[in-house]
Amino acid sequence: MSRLAEAMEREQPAPRAAAPVLRVSDLSKRYSADGPPALSGVTFDVGEGELLAVVGPSGCGKTTLLRLLCGLIPPSAGAVLFDGEPVQRPPREFALVFQDYSRSLFPWLNVSRNVMFPLRGAGLARAERIARAEAVLAEVGLHGVARSYPWKLSGGMQQRVAIARALVSRPELLLLDEPFASIDALTRAELQDLLLRIHSGVEHRRVTIVHVTHDIDEAVYLADRVLVLGAAPGRVIGSIEVGIARPRTQTTTRSSPQFLAVRNQIHDVIAAKEATR
Amino acid sequence: MAASVARVGRPLLGVAVFLAALAVWEAWARSKGSILVPPASSVVETAWEVWPTTDFLTGVGASLRRLAAGFAIGAGVGIGLGLVMGSSTRARRALEPLVEFCRAMPAIAIVPAAIVLLGLGDAMQITVIAFGLCFPVLVNTLAGVRAVSPEVRDTAAMLQVGALERIFRIYLPGALPSIVAGLRVAVSLGLVAVVISEFVGEGEGLGRYIRLQQTEFDVPAMYCGILFLGLLGYVLNRLFLVGERRVLSWHYGSVGEGVGR
């Protein structure tokens, strides 16, 4: 095979697996019996190794959707299937990263112990757990902070710790709830690239990612596909293939005509929904 | 420079006010000239003689032992119930009315009942002390558990942390700053209960010593006992703060300096 052909093959968008890892069918959630539904009839699949971004205005039920996917709350109707099995409680293979890193890390544990926490029942020797934690901390770009307490670190570093804690148990599905929303713009770009690196393979394993955000540009930059949610009730109003070749970079990708086209397409979907209200 | 002078001056101001209060007492007592109102100087003089005596120190030891026993039981019950009520909505709904009812009763009000049930000895005294100090610990533990962030709760759920493990590895450390604040209040309340229970009960102790001197009209010695209680409370509180700063260094860092002084 010529080098050009090789390069072309590498730059193909990730092929979608035939069998989806996660199937969401007709999912609805009402928080009270007589109240309005937070989510209504949400159906979509997530393919193995796919990076799916979920965007939508605030109040469209993004966080509710994520909590349903994780089995943290039960649906009012419909189902979430992971590897064909209904998700009723949080599966071991899932990991969740929150927007508010300062409230999600355990403040009473130092960085190393925070990251090791998910391994506590894994039957690993302490030395092995420490080694795993150090490896994953290095993977997210943190060095020399293992013994610090979370509050000593900047917001971006704390979120890296939270991502390391999510990755240490080698999850098959990584779910992120607006993980970069409270982080300054420069650090946000770094963390977006970190997420792309994680997606392309942690320890040579591809990770499937569901990334909830309200930032359409971020969604297009990161995702294979963008799921657009509309509000009141929250439901899927569009599913848009991004199809931009990987690897992506902040400068080249974001200024490419393809990027602008996909981004405008998403804005159009949202505007069309607004017009019909 | 001005700032450093102010920093050095801060404890000095407190000492000055303290000494001024003693001076006012001294002047007032001298103007009265009654044996029922001894001047500060004569009380301090008496204290210098009385405090080191075996008699007095045995009483202090007995009081401290009761305080320790009551503290261990009351704080244990308070933390335990607080953790259970904080981690289970059902337990909280079931126990809250009872707890709120008992909490409303002043410790001193249960003394007669405790005497009827347990007599005048240590059992009654320790029960009163434990009762008096367990509620602030319980309330603070409960508040601390309920203040554990939803993100931490969700993280625990995602990591398959079971019910018992959640109590000990999530709620207990998460609520610790609040629990410790409750324990510090409990020490002061415990001291109050020690004195109350010794006023009416048997055996040696600081409360008993104060009552005895009062009935024998040894007014300066009575004040010696009272002043020693003040000193004891102050020292216990200081010791507690030192311990608290060590155990909760992670907490003071995360919420900034100047908390819990």
Overall description:
The complex is a heterodimer of chains A (277) and B (261). Chain A has a six-stranded mixed β-sheet with strand order 6-7-8-3-9-10, sandwiched between helices. A four-stranded antiparallel β-sheet of chain A has the order 2-1-4-5, covered by helices on one side. Chain A has helices spanning 3-11, 62-69, 101-104, 111-116, 126-139, 155-167, 185-200, 216-222, 250-254, 257-275, and strands at residues 20-29, 39-47, 51-55, 77-82, 85-86, 94-97, 173-177, 208-212, 225-230, 235-241. Chain A is α/β, with parallel strands linked by helices. The longest helix of chain A is centred in the last third of the chain and has 19 residues, at 257-275. Chain A has a domain at 3-9 and 17-93 and 207-276: Rossmann fold (3-Layer(aba) Sandwich). Chain A has ten helices and ten strands. Chain B has 261 residues and is mainly α. Chain B has two domains: 1-34; 38-254, Orthogonal Bundle (MetI-like fold), CATH 1.10.3720.10. Helix content of chain B is 84%, strand content 0%. Chain B has eleven helices and no strands. Chain B has helices at 2-32, 40-50, 54-87, 89-104, 111-118, 122-146, 150-158, 163-200, 206-215, 219-247, 249-255. The radius of gyration of chain B is 22 Å and the shape is globular. Chain B starts with a helix and ends in a 6-residue tail after the last helix. The A-B interface holds A 67, 70, 72, 89-90, 92, 94-96, 98, 100, 103-104, 106-110, 117-118, 121, 149-152, 169 and B 149-152, 154-155, 157-160, 170, 173-174, 176, 250-251, 253-254.
